[in-house]
Amino acid sequence: MKLALAEVPAPYLLEPRVMAQGAGGGWTPLVAAIQEAGLVDGPPSGDIAAALSYLSELKPTPRRRIERVLEAKPTGRQPERLLKPVGPDMKLLLTEGRVALSRSNDQKPAKSPVGFSMFESAFADPGATVRLPDAGAHYDAEAVLVAIMGRGFHRGTEASAARSVVGFTLMCQITHRDLFDEEAVTRNNLMAKNCDRLSPLGPAIWIAQPSALDPATVVTMSINGQERQRFAVADLAHSVPRAVRAWGRCVLDPGDAVGLGAAICWAKPDNAVDSPIPVKSGDAIEVACAPIGTLSARIG
Question: CATH fold of 91-299, please?
Fold first, then answer.
């Protein structure tokens, strides 16, 4: 099952709704699928965090009933457009190596996860045309696998951290590199990672726990049709449960996220994966992962 926040036609206006997709590929409002499955007390129709929390608490049998409803609707309702699958209070903690990698992945990752914080305003919708905030500045991009929280988590074990994850999505994390270098002098790194709607997120959330994520699962990033990054889950220096547990020193709420990208992959011969990748106006970007889908964006 996949979950997305989408604009769908209502009687008079387009309204954001949490939509669910089964194996057939059709989209159905999650609330409608829950009702057809004979379940009660579903989440509000437009609250993605509440939907994630609801699914995280469901037992396997009722979740399978929802999936059967979705599988019976191979076409379903087509959203006008998909939105970033986040709530208004969402935060994302981006895991990096010991220091931010500048132009290649030849530095060793940290022994424990460290990184950057990102806020809801930093994310762009799937398919968006991203606007670079400062003409003439330098920017770069990185593919990121994003673990989405279904339960709150704070200072627990790796096992409980894994149980708190409800699914995965993708991000193209774009950094204002000139601003990052300016901030680095003061040991601050907040603004360069949080420019308004600079980093696309989506297209949907694949509902699955970390144990369902095959270590061979690959994430790629292509720019203008040319593959520029490729890493497998097995390449990540920190596992998803370990990264979530480390960030659990903060408080993670349902709908929050932990990101793991190419910058914390183990180095490969001849820097086979470069990180990060310079980007500029006019570039078309695609971040892809088979169980999740393809996140597309263009830089305006």
Answer: Fumarylacetoacetate hydrolase; domain 2 (3.90.850)
